């Protein structure tokens, strides 16, 4: 926010020499304005921090959503395992992101590839990054790790999980976020010196940075582990290994939806930024618009999935609808702030088809991902990056990324190829970077026999063999009380 | 918000002719103030948008609450079905409300009956409606549809559901909200030209607009479908078909409680509105008071239900308490912003009795509503509207609906009967309108054999026949495994 | 917030006699600034209220977290019971805290021991306490009661629960919060007349006031009731009576984590307070830092528990990790605003060890607490109080508790022993006060045979005998059906 421009010299001249002490009067008045100006600064810090903090809490709630979604999507015998990984994504992620992840991602000043300040939050807060920003970015980092844990569920050793999760949250993900979100990043849309293709990548809330990274990491993990026992029968036909609780899936999906309102609109990080002072239209409108585009993309994707799956399988299936919904969200994440609401409808529609296609493909190549995470976050995420390159609106691009008029915008909106090219580059480098880091990591773990659990453990379930017991115990130990309950109950 | 009123014309003469350039100096100073004033405008928009957006997110979380409440309240064999309807309430509602629902509800300028601008969010944002307002209203619209889906649970064809849900969210509900909430609505308390009975209807957050609409729609649905198989035995006695998971019911109830803090206090839509500038008492206090009245009404209703049910049935029953709690919330929703906290206690107390009475009545007339939604949202919602007309305080009414001194207020508070008259009109027109729209719709679906599922499907459960399988698989495929699984814990596991 | 200090008396002479009307000009200008200043007051109230209200909603969501955590941690046959107690903590707590709890806690002016104004929210809002503050404090009060209900789960009569819960929320807890948080409290760090040891107790968000009070109350309850049947076998060995659903435990834990962001950072109650006007570093940074310390302490405790338990028991156990996490949060609650992030890591590490140690001890002395609530909230809470006295940094203490330079701060940070002395006093008086109130209460209930349920009831489960039925019905009525249901998926379903 520009400060008020009261100038003592100008005002003193205007008051003129007949005023007893023109300079002092002018200084006095301007001093008052300066105090007013300071208080506006305070106000905007307080308002923006409030906004950012509550957004961060919402994003954190997504971790709960992931936990419930994952728990419901696996078989009962592996519930304890998958929930533990979700709790630890958050916990281990907190420590690693504090120690060095945040420094790699946003350490400034830095080169375009990796940050190198703020280790252990040293020198934070400064005028650019406050604690609340760290918290917000941490919540993003753990989301990426949460995506991956879904792909390799039900068959991965817990130690392997601890290793890849730390590596992903502490190194792989922070570097990608540095490239695209730090003002020093080589492909950042806010890079001060040199924009990639004169444009930089507009991955506003992370279809690429978060979702593709998590999804592709999961792709490698699931690929190297191979499918779960029983997922493809002897003749190679796919058998559905259904999750144990659709209620938990729906609970998780709604919580993710809820949290996405922190993820997408929250990515502005500031809300008290007028575009023209004194006008009803400002960043707060853009924030609201972002929430609307997010909603519409998800809703459209859910409906598209509903009817398409009805045609394909004959069922109205709620878990498929939930996945479609999430696919729509993952896709709109990149462009949510710079597209019109009607474009979000298109985004969601295509995202649902992309997801269905990816799932068909996965089945064909015998790729097994219990949560469809690689297909959903990888596939729909990539579509989202492309979508933004096609539909970004000129006005919104310039409002959200101000200070550099004449930026390229969406190809289909007449904005030329600059943005589209940058986004293709983004898709490629993310695939490349995750392949060269997570691919070898999973491969080495496998070679060391640390990746996959034994066939016996897999049949019995990890909860019994590794995690101290089954997650559920609906019946009492003595069998007869249990069955008595069952019958006694209903007449009451 | 009035801006600081610096006027160069007034200031310049005060400097007078001896000042070198009095007009320029005054203009200079006043321009500074004008900048300051603009920045206050920015601040107010940012603060109010933050407040409204987070309130909208809370209201959205009620949809999750509905989903869990409904899921837990039906039998396990219909869980997938009911959860799908809840997800689609939100999803289909999002599209329809975007395309025309919002336009019907708030399209301005319009006549008193229906709005006709802003289709597909065209021309949004304007100075009065921003995107965040749309999002907030969308979250309300899907809540109404969520209520109805509870009433007709466990026996409705999915296609029927898709049709009524779109119709309710896209047309029936928006029109009602236009009447009572839009500045152009014929019964709105903010109508600028002509207030109904000089008062307008004070349905602040929608006991009538949301809850009664949803509840009465559900009433017609459930009435036309008839009770579930097994709900009343041959001799006509009621048999409780218990939901499959009380944990989900409690989860859903608490989430609804959580979300209600967006529903009621959020309905101010602005928080940075002083009543007198520079004072600690302003709209922020009214917002806080609204949260407090909401809480107290729900709490009282929960306790009343607890003891009432204990006396009637001999049990301390948590699902009944949850329903009582929600009844208290549905009732206070209309008057939450204009009543004193002590009145909210009365509101909740009566709401619990209303709900118990409605349930007794429903059982007597063999009306089957798996979620008690018609009784709860319809009955307690109607009581809430009456309650507001009785207990609205003069001061709060004038603060919340400013600019028109001498408005009627609560009958018991000495404000005369005009508010009550308006509120009775509201109840009647809502009943009439929903009867005239949703009644024929459900009847038509019934005649077309699109409404109720077949008897076989109902006995087997819709999840198996229509939704691709049972919601839960706690045990492995073979019997062997199943039994092992269950016994393994006591025998062999280290713990 | 200091307002712009425009003074017409100072400004007028600067214009001097040549200005036509210097006094009027100066007054005119200064009046404009006064308007501006008022609008800053409005803005601050609106922003702070928004912040406080949403924090209160988050804290409320912890009640949902408690309900789910408790439900998942008990056996299925007692689920209805424990969830009912959690709903009623909130509901009964709402009424009692409204009627007198808030008055005891924050009624001002008062003596150092107990407040005595604001009964039934009379005279609220004042310039220092608004409705939103009441709501926030209510959410805290019910958290304390929620802690205790975990300790005595699965074996307590419902009537006993109603009595102790009202007493705790309405009297015991409010008095403690008066001592340490009210401006009049004898040990409050904001006491204007006389600080305890020149320092007062820095229990920022209530490791002592909330967690120790709830935990110690639970300790007495569980001690007087004795362990559940089957918890210790004939030879005295402990047998783990596992909860019925780890999913609910994880759900509850994450919700508590989510809510803790209202609990700790929210305890500032204001966010728009600059330390130096016009600077990026202000209370908003302290709020963010508090959220960070909270996060880090919980994360460290979770990891410590994970590896600690792996070594001790050979399992990677998610419910243990959840408890460890919560122990880390309970510990950091006291000092969250005044310690560095690195110190929070230490806090969490030790908290996990304290919890493991307390659990070992409890097993040794045959103390049975189904939720580990006494160990977790009592033990880790006490550690948190000590921790704050050791690691509070000078700068943060003076920023968070301004206006009295040279306050004592953490012993290890060079701040001397006075803060530690005050904190040890806090631990002792909380133990003493809760022992003197809740101990006799539970003992009296025990003597009146109102405390523990009968052996038969305990074996059958309270849900069947007292709460109208089992919480879950996954299967249809007959056995026949039951088996069909279960087998149907692999054999006959289309998928």
UniProtKB/TrEMBL annotation, chain A:
Residues 51-472 form the Ammonium transporter AmtB-like domain. GO terms for biological process: ammonium homeostasis. The chain crosses the membrane at residues 51-74, 86-108, 128-147, 159-181, 201-224, 245-263, 342-362, 374-392, 412-445. It holds the Pfam family Ammonium_transp. It is a multi-pass membrane protein. It is found in: Cell membrane; Membrane. InterPro entries: Ammonium/urea_transptr, Ammonium_transpt, Ammonium_transpt_CS, NH4_transpt_AmtB-like_dom. One of its GO terms (molecular function) is ammonium channel activity. Its main location: membrane. Keywords: Ammonia transport, Membrane, Transmembrane, Transmembrane helix, Transport. Belongs to the ammonia transporter channel (TC 1.A.11.2) family. This is Ammonium transporter. It comes from Buddleja alternifolia.
TrEMBL record, chains B, C:
It is a multi-pass membrane protein. The chain crosses the membrane at residues 51-74, 95-114, 134-152, 159-181, 201-224, 245-263, 342-362, 374-392, 420-445. GO terms for cellular component: plasma membrane. It is found in: Cell membrane; Membrane. It holds the Pfam family Ammonium_transp. Residues 51-472 form the Ammonium transporter AmtB-like domain. InterPro entries: Ammonium/urea_transptr, Ammonium_transpt, Ammonium_transpt_CS, NH4_transpt_AmtB-like_dom. One of its GO terms (biological process) is ammonium homeostasis. Keywords: Ammonia transport, Membrane, Transmembrane, Transmembrane helix, Transport. GO terms for molecular function: ammonium channel activity. Belongs to the ammonia transporter channel (TC 1.A.11.2) family. PANTHER family: AMMONIUM TRANSPORTER, AMMONIUM TRANSPORTER 1 MEMBER 1. This is Ammonium transporter. It comes from Buddleja alternifolia.
């Amino acid at each position: 926010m520009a400060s008020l421009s009261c100038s003592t010299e100008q005002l003193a001249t205007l008051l003129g020499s007949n005023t007893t002490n023109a300079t002092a009067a002018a200084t006095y008045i301007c001093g008052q304005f300066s105090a007013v100006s300071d208080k506006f600064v305070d106000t905007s810090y307080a308002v923006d921090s409030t906004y950012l903090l509550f957004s961060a809490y919402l994003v954190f709630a997504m971790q709960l959503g992931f936990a419930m979604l994952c728990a419901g999507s696996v078989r009962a015998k592996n519930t304890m395992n998958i929930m533990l990984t979700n709790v630890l994504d958050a916990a281990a992620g907190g420590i690693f992101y504090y120690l060095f992840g945040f420094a790699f991602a946003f350490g400034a000043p830095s080169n375009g590839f990796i940050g190198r300040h703020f280790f252990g939050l040293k020198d934070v807060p400064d005028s650019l990054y406050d604690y609340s920003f760290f918290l917000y970015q941490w919540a993003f980092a753990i989301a990426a790790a949460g995506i991956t844990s879904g792909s390799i569920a039900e068959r991965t050793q817990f130690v392997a999980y601890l290793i890849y999760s730390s590596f992903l949250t502490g190194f792989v993900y922070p570097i990608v976020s540095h490239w695209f979100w730090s003002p020093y990043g080589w492909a950042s849309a806010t890079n001060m010196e040199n924009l990639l293709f004169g444009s930089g990548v507009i991955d506003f809330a992370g279809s690429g940075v978060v979702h593709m990274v998590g999804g592709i990491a999961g792709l490698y993990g699931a690929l190297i582990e191979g499918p779960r026992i029983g997922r493809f029968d002897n003749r190679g036909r796919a058998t559905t290994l259904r999750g144990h609780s659709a209620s938990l899936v729906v609970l998780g999906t709604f919580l993710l939806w809820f949290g996405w309102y922190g993820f997408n609109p929250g990515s502005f990080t500031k809300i008290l930024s007028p575009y023209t002072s004194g006008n009803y239209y400002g960043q707060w409108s853009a924030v609201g618009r972002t929430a609307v585009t997010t909603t519409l993309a998800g809703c459209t994707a859910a409906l598209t999935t509903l009817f398409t799956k009805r045609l394909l399988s004959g069922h109205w299936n709620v878990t498929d609808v939930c996945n479609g919904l999430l696919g729509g969200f993952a896709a709109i994440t990149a462009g949510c702030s710079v597209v019109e609401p009607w474009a979000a409808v298109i985004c969601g529609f295509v995202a649902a088809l992309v997801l269905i296609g990816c799932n068909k493909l996965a089945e064909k190549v015998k790729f097994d991902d219990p949560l469809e995470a690689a297909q959903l976050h990888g596939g729909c995420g990539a579509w989202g990056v492309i979508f933004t390159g096609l539909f970004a609106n000129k006005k919104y691009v310039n409002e959200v990324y101000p200070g550099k008029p004449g930026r390229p915008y969406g190809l289909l909106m007449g904005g030329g190829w600059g943005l589209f090219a940058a986004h293709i580059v983004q898709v490629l480098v993310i695939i490349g970077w995750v392949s060269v880091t997570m691919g070898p990591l999973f491969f080495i773990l496998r070679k060391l026999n640390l990746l996959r659990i034994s066939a016996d453990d897999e049949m019995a379930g990890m909860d019994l063999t590794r995690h101290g017991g089954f997650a559920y115990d609906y019946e009492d130990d003595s069998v007869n009380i249990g069955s008595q309950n069952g019958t006694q109950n209903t007449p009451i």
